[in-house]
Design a protein that fits this description.
Elements (H helix, E strand, L loop, with lengths): L2 H8 L7 H14 L13 H16 L9 H14 L15 E8 L5 E10 L9 H22 L9 H15 L3 H8 L2 E4 L5 E10 L2 H8 L12 E8 L2 E5 L5 E6 L4 H11 L3 E7 L5 H5 L2 E10 L7 H18 L1
Antiparallel strand pairs: 1-2, 3-4, 4-7, 4-9, 5-6, 5-8, 6-7, 8-9
Helix pairs in contact: 1-3, 2-3, 5-6, 6-11, 7-9
Length: 329
């Protein structure tokens, strides 16, 4: 394997620094974990490890990557567990189920050896908790709930809808363990106030579109080359995607984010109609972005004054209905 191939496997540009390589490696390794594989195929963990080791070697200039003994690893793991035996975070007492908080186990070189639970409770996510580990926690929680139902019904094999039900269950549980308002303040790239003194938050976003689909829906003459500053508007929400339309009412594609955390913070707010949005086309990006079917957007949101009382109970009702349907499947 060459360095160039290693960068490709990790999805990075040549010359990426060690912190960026480590973050990307952690994220892909967590996505390769069976508990996180809800809809997407697994990454090749062996290739990820090989690529990470090669780049670490190249950056450090050493001939090999040193590793700890098994005893040292156990000692470091136990020490980390003791340091984090209690997790300092707000809780949602209305949450349907407790979840585990995970911590990375690493060797002396910073390579991820795995993860282990350090606490359990109805803790809300905050930015000090690594987000891939938060998702792992949610997927583990959703899997346990469905395992209990399958055991209760003495099922020899889970029903065919289990994967889709677990994906939806994880999405609902994630909402119970996030505080959208405080997270928005931390994740926004910019914040300002409008003339009425209400807070506005800016996020980087993208318009994802399929040229073949657009041509089929609107005709081959339909203009896909949107101009900088052009306004887009919400069209509909389907399968947890917010589709956007132009001022002619023609659907252009759906909203996506370079920061995965925003899918779990902003999309639920759109579904609950708790935000107002202003979306403009940003400056044209690189040609490859356009050829790949995406364009940069400037997204401003404002939280509505809608009464949020009863929201945790509403989510619990949705979870109960989903689980009842799973029992009857």
């Amino acid at each position: 394997m060459t360095e160039h191939e290693a960068y490709q496997i990790l999805g990075l540009s040549p010359g990426a620094g060690e912190p960026e390589i480590k973050r990307r490696y952690r994220r892909l390794m967590l996505q390769s974990h069976p508990d996180a594989a809800i809809e997407n195929p697994l990454h090749d963990a062996q290739k990820l490890n090989a690529a990470y080791s090669l780049l670490k070697k190249a950056l450090s200039g050493t001939a090999s990557i040193s590793s700890e003994t098994e005893a040292d690893n156990v000692h470091r793991t136990e020490a980390a567990g003791k340091r984090n035996s209690t997790w300092d975070a707000p809780v949602n007492p209305y949450a349907f189920r407790e979840r585990e908080i995970f911590h990375y186990a690493e060797d002396q070189e910073g390579a991820v050896l795995g993860s282990f639970p350090i606490a359990k409770g109805k803790y809300l996510w905050h930015t000090q908790e690594d987000f891939p580990l938060f998702l792992l926690s949610i997927y583990r929680c959703s899997r346990l709930i469905l395992d209990e139902i399958d055991e209760e019904l003495s099922r020899e094999e889970p029903p065919s809808i289990r994967l889709s039900v677990q994906a939806e269950l994880a999405y609902l549980l994630a909402q119970q363990f996030t505080d959208a308002q405080s997270s928005i303040r931390e994740l926004a790239s910019e914040m300002k106030t409008d003339p009425q003194g209400r807070e506005l938050y800016h996020f980087s976003a993208m318009l994802e579109y399929d040229k073949k689909w657009i041509s089929k829906a609107h005709g081959t003459s339909f203009r896909t080359d949107l101009q900088e500053g052009e306004l887009l508007f919400p069209s509909s929400l389907r399968k947890h995607r917010l589709y956007l339309k132009n001022h002619h009412g023609q659907e252009m594609g759906y909203l996506s984010f370079p920061d995965d955390r925003l899918y779990y913070i902003l999309i639920p707010l759109f579904e609950q109609r708790r935000v107002q949005v202003r979306i403009r086309m940003a400056a044209k990006g690189r040609a490859r972005e356009k050829s790949a079917g995406c364009r940069k957007l400037s997204l401003w949101i404002r939280l509505s004054d809608r009464n949020q009382s009863g929201l945790p109970e509403n989510l619990n009702l949705q979870i109960e209905r989903l689980l009842e349907a799973y029992r009857l499947s």
